[in-house]
Amino acid sequence: xxxxxxxxxxxxxxxxxxxxxxxxxxxxxxxxxxxxxxxxxxxxxxxxxxxxxxxxxxxxxxxxxxxxxxxxxxxxxxxxxxxxxxxxxxxxxxxxxxxxxxxxxxxxxxxxxxxxxxxxxxxxxxxxxxxxxxxxxxxxxxxxxxxxxxxxxxxxxxxxxxxxxxxxxxxxxxxxxxxxxxxxxxxxxx
Length: 190
Prior knowledge:
Order of helices and strands: HHHHHHHHHHH
Low-confidence stretches: none
Shape: globular
Mean pLDDT: 89
Largest sheet: none
Distance between the termini: 51 Å
Number of domains: 2
Radius of gyration: 18 Å
Number of strands: 0
Helix content: over 70%
Strand content: under 5%
Structural class: mainly alpha
């Protein structure tokens, strides 16, 4: 019975996420209320809040798993691979899902482009994820993450390149995918 319940819960969350995404893309993040999302999804507001804590989470909540993939992806790279290459590979593995402009990606892109900066930034690594990545880089380099600048600098440079590609992709119609732009940005700083 719990398997069925979990599947129904996941289906409802996917439905709510899609409804919210469509509304955000159509009208902009700030012009859509949680009440409107719940009504459009055909659920009570209390049901909506059983699935998400905030409106922000409707746009970036599903990305949290993907963000962790960057850190885990770096950890899984071969130990003898140069750090810049391993960081680039981990980040690019994450952006592969944006290689094709599917309808969902196009909706998400429009919604995210219209979202406040705090929401757009939430789709990138948070402080804990960044700190874990710095520790992993330090271990690979045989350095102390607290005492040496290099591990943190290498992580921040790679993430800054990826963030710049992301902002470029959100705000400009270049006809290029996020994945391609990120690959170019990372190659520039490697």
